[in-house]
Amino acid sequence: MATREDRETGTLARRDDSAPEAIATLEGQPLGPNRGMPLNLDWVRAVRVNTSAVERRAQTLVTRRTVKKDWQAAWLLRAISCMDLTTLSGDDTEERVRRLCAKARRPLRQDLVERLGIAKLNLTVAAVCVYHTFVEAAVRALEGSGIRVAAVSTGFPAGLSPLAERVAEIRRSVEAGAHEIDIVITRAHVFGGNWQALYDEIAAFKQACGAAHMKAILGTGDLLTLRNVGRASVVAMMAGADFIKTSTGKEPTNATLPVGLVMTRAIRNYALETGMAVGFKPAGGIRTAKQSLEWLALIKEELGPSWLRAEMFRFGASGMLGDIERQLEHHATGRYSADFRHPLA
């Protein structure tokens, strides 16, 4: 936990600049955007995780939480609106990115939109996530849509290129028009408990992002323990991350509910201690509509309704959209359709 002095420091920090408008609320407390704070090693080292308790709690989201019929359809529409539609393949092309952007603008078939009676929603995904090479193509394809462009950066997915190169890559993506930057931390700093180096690295990335929002990818599948996940989450938030994100999608194990529980509770504690809100993005291995409902239930129960929007919560996904579209068609018609009727791009 933070000391009294640290809590006062956080309070003073958020009152500077004429107290920024609240972007979320938690337990009735208005929260401002995260502007970081000095590294508090006592807080970081005090992080403890009861793994068996976390796993039991996560299991309740799978076995005891469910929504049906119209409520389920509404939650699935919310999942689409919080999606970072992603393509991060070695064989990506500008044409593939343009098709993905077209899908981002119209994530559901028009006949299905009409059946569901949701034309007035003007439903789109939250963002399209691509490599730096395709940022300009995505920006052009999404012009006027309000959909944001996110670029993976800092030597994605390993994050092992020289620091100066990683910082320069961020700046190039921002100059190309990226609204959000998904950075990768150096996992070795976590293994060695070198929290100052991790803090300094993320703070340098945040500075390079300028006005662009920064999502810090922890690579949780590589961090070995939930305690490491919790500590890395706290350091990333202290360094100014706007979002903390589970995975690159390239690790053997990516987003899991126990990891999500640890990260959302770190966000909760940080918000209550500092008055600053940090978003959350699970990514990698989320492929089904059912999984999207489980993650939405986790966010609602741990952080509350104000996090259930694209400004505070994102899915890093691509294949999940097709399954959500199939489930919505079943809701509208009573029949399941074949996968090929819902192409991603």
Features:
about 350 residues, alpha/beta, TIM Barrel, 8-stranded parallel sheet, 3-stranded mixed sheet, about 10% strand
What does this structure look like?
This protein has 345 residues and is an alpha/beta fold. It has a single domain, classed as Alpha-Beta Barrel (TIM Barrel), CATH 3.20.20. Helices cover 47% and strands 12% of the residues. The chain contains 14 helices and eleven strands. The strands form two sheets. It has an eight-stranded parallel sheet with strand order 10-8-7-6-5-4-3-11. The protein has a three-stranded mixed sheet with strand order 1-2-9, with helices on one face. Strand 7 (213-217), helix 11 and strand 8 (243-245) form a beta-alpha-beta unit. Helix 4 packs across helix 13 (289-302). The longest helix is centred in the C-terminal third of the chain and has 18 residues, at 257-274. The N and C termini lie far apart (46 Å). The relative contact order is 0.16.
Main beta-sheet annotation: 8 strands, parallel
Supply Rg. 20 Å
SSE ordering: HEEHHHEHHEHEHEHHEHEHEEHEH
Write out the CATH superfamily name.
Aldolase class I
Provide a count of the helices: 14
| CATH architecture descriptor text | Alpha-Beta Barrel
Q: Which geometry do the CA atoms define?
A: globular
Q: In the CATH hierarchy, what is the class?
A: Alpha Beta
Provide the β-strand percentage band: 5-15%
Number of domains: 1
Q: How many DSSP E strands?
A: 11
